[in-house]
Amino acid sequence: MKFSLKPLRKNGLSLAELMVVVLVLLPALLATVLVFIRCLELIELSKNTSLALWEVKNKINTIETTGFSQVAATFHQSTFQSANLTGRGVCYVESLQADLLRVTVSFSWREKGGRIIGEDKDFDGVIDAGEDVNGNGFLDSPVKLVTLIYDM
To answer: Each residue of 120-137: b (16+ CB within 10 Å) or e?
Structure first.
């Protein structure tokens, strides 16, 4: 009778090897899922920023087609809403000279996850306690356009 000192080995992984593989691959899988979720959030933010910018540009166009003498009376501290976003835009008109106005239009909105973009936390178009973070007297937002209007 011949005896062999070679251990019997079956094809496949042992339990210890399988646990090591799981411990290595699980964090990589979780990180991939978290990156995917963050990418979806960034896609939504980008889409909503584009929609808000479109609304602000439309408001600027409306203001620019209004007669110079009526701009301040009609649009200073006026608000507007969007059909596509939950939020509110606000317009500010400042007289720099007798024939020159500076018009600032910004838009604040709420993302799906509840995050509010911009300083107008309650979407009323009025500066409330804690909203004007930088103290400039305007409700600022990442979507804000400023234009000058001259009287011709």
So the answer is: beebebebeeebeeeeee
For residue range 70-115, what is the model confidence (pLDDT) as tens digits? 999 999 999 999 999 999 999 999 999 999 999 999 999 999 989 9
Of the candidates 103, 107, 105, 74, the one whose C-alpha atom is nearest the C-alpha of residue 89 is 107
Q: How many Å is the Cα radius of gyration of the chain? A: 29
Q: Are 104 and 98 in contact (CB under 8 A)?
A: no
> For residue 75, with 0-12 CB atoms within 10 Å meaning exposed, 13-18 middle and 19 or more buried, which class applies?
buried
- 56 pLDDT above the threshold of 80: yes
Whether pTM exceeds 0.85: no
Report the 10 Å Cβ neighbour count for 65: 7
Which residues have C-beta within 8 Å of that of residue 149, sequence separation ≥ 6?
Answer: 63, 64, 68, 71, 100, 101, 102, 103
* Number of helical H runs and strand E runs in the chain: 2, 5
CA-to-CA distance for 89 and 63, rounded, in angstroms? 14
